[in-house]
TrEMBL record, chains A, B:
InterPro entries: HD_domain, YfbR/HDDC2. This is HD superfamily hydrolase. GO terms for cellular component: cytoplasm. One of its GO terms (molecular function) is 5'-deoxynucleotidase activity. Residues 32-194 form the HD domain. It holds the Pfam family HD_3. It comes from the Bacteria. Keywords: Hydrolase, Metal-binding.
């Protein structure tokens, strides 16, 4: 491929005589190191900087392990963890699209599908197919595991915003109603977690950390 | 407790009327945000900085998903992922102990057990017991899953060091033989991955990225 993107591994290629299948897998493992440099909007609780996608994915995986009991339908924890591990991988090429970025949201799926094509094709075919399946499952949310994974993806930044006393809730033009609407998907997986999440948003609104409806700036 | 450590959540306490069990779990979820600030020695491939524990744990989890086929004994992928997710949690209080830090390694287990006691006790008892069990399993390496998790923990920085053309292999006093000795545990889980790992170390030594034996500085 004449116009192949430069891969991280190109800087220090792996030995030519490694087993070819393993060599492709390690190339992928090295390439996804990029996820550690893709910044999200959410502020960390523990330091004065924004969170990156790798940290976010780890945090979601831990939340699946700890909060699975709140799923309204039984879920397979190991499978759900794999969904959250994989769900943001495509952002190594597509970048993060902030939740409240309406313009960026328009072509997000198209950009991410192109990125998935490019990234997953680094792997042996059987594994590329498997990552596509995990990513599609997360996006389509037709399984209880995917719904729960999505709920974690919405609940985690909600907790970070609570700790930041606003965080991205303070995005210009965004009201507490917008936040509730974007987060309501938590309720598709867990009645109790959405109840708690909504309580944090309501309380944040009452404390002035999110704008009341009708007061959009 | 009069001398309780200040928790991250203390800065912005969660509402008092949240369900008490969920409140403890969310307190823990917020507290482990600290893992994103615990720096390891390994340099990232994708940026000019060191890796943190949360990024490292995510990377290991991805490697389990992608490389499980190389385990000499069959492993449960979902369980192995949970082992790597949990294995470094205690470092939120105990800090990272570099692999080639012999002095720090002496009391490492004791420091980490105290940290586990403090951290895991934030959770409801049943979950504290569960995290202790996962952490002990990882440390004891008596299951195929724990051996594979440990292998990932040794292979991942090996890849980062390869990409850095030395990285922590250049630690003063460390030779290529020391590196091979510390990494040989990969072979307890996977003959093929240890073969590949050793090949990278041998090649690194040949290229002058690690010191030959007998030439310790």
């Amino acid at each position: 491929m004449a116009d192949r993107r430069e891969l991280l591994v190109d800087a220090t290629p792996l030995p030519e005589d490694l087993d070819p299948r393993l060599r492709r897998q390690l190339t992928f493992v090295i390439e996804i190191d990029r996820l550690k440099t893709v910044l999200r909007q959410s502020p960390l609780v523990s330091a004065e900087r924004r969170e990156n996608d790798a940290e976010h994915s780890w945090h979601l995986a831990m939340m699946v392990v700890l909060l699975a009991e709140y799923a309204d339908e039984p879920i397979d924890v190991g499978h759900t963890v794999q969904l959250v591990l994989v769900h943001d991988l495509v952002e190594v090429y597509a970048g993060d699209t902030p939740l409240y970025d309406v313009a960026g949201g328009q072509d997000q799926l198209e950009r991410e599908r192109l990125a998935a094509d490019e990234l997953f094709s680094l792997l042996p075919d059987d594994q590329a197919v498997r990552l596509w399946a995990l990513w599609d499952e997360f996006e389509e949310r037709t399984t209880p595991e995917a719904r729960f994974a999505k709920a974690m993806d919405r609940l985690q930044p909600l907790l970070l915003n609570w700790m930041a006393r606003g965080g991205t809730w303070r995005t210009p033009g965004v009201t507490a109603d917008d936040v509730r609407q974007r987060k309501a998907v938590i309720g598709d997986a867990s009645t109790q977690l959405w109840e708690a999440g909504r309580q944090l948003i309501d309380e944040g609104e009452a404390r002035g950390w999110a704008r009341p409806a009708g007061e959009s700036r």
